[in-house]
Design goal:
about 180 residues, alpha+beta, Nucleoside Triphosphate Pyrophosphohydrolase, four-stranded mixed sheet, three-stranded antiparallel sheet, 6 helices
Length: about 180
């Protein structure tokens, strides 16, 4: 998914979630910026994430992010790479050690614009996170990366207890629960 196809996917992206639909146009606008895929764009930049579920759609894989100290989906910076699906896959593999990862659908699963707090000399900025749905085997051993404090398969009905009121995680959970995508 290159810059042009990302823009087309975003232009055709529909969501019933008001919070998510409120920033679709901002994502589209960002695709016109040549620096949108590098973290040096301090106003905000694209990231790619993987919402990883098991085949039975009962669990999701979350990471306790070392810097943010929050349970989140796996993902990270594009670092100049414009194919955010590939970014999401690479980050998911790097952060989990999973080899059974499989893309469920190459279309955008979710988008979220969220604030990253200032850290050192990097000012507060936005991540324009494009998320894709992945599937993996739960019985495969996990490898915690240096970016995480922990990594765990969380049963769907326990996700809210783990993440609190994180609306973007809860939105992806709801989408998964209602999804008819390749089960």
């Amino acid at each position: 998914m290159d810059r042009k196809s990302l823009r087309e996917n975003l232009e055709n992206y529909r969501t019933p979630f008001e919070d998510e639909s409120s920033f679709v146009d901002d994502f589209i606008e960002l695709t016109f910026d040549d620096n949108a895929y590098v973290r040096e764009r301090l106003e905000g930049h694209f990231t790619g994430s993987a919402w990883i579920v098991n085949k039975r759609r009962t669990h999701t894989l979350l990471t306790l992010h070392r810097k943010l100290n929050k349970w989140l989906q796996l993902g990270g910076h594009a670092d100049g790479h414009e194919n955010l699906l590939e970014v999401a896959m690479a980050e998911a593999q790097e952060e989990s050690g999973l080899t059974s990862l499989r893309i469920v659908d190459s279309r955008i699963f979710d988008i979220d614009r969220h604030t990253i707090p200032q850290r050192g000399d990097v000012p507060e900025h936005f991540h324009y996170d494009v998320r894709f749905l992945f599937e993996a085997e739960m019985n495969e051993p996990l490898q915690i990366s240096e970016e995480s404090k922990d990594l765990a398969w969380i049963q769907f009905d326990a996700v809210e207890d783990i993440v609190g009121l994180n609306p973007s995680i809860l939105r992806m959970l709801e989408k998964t629960s209602k999804s008819e995508i390749l089960m």
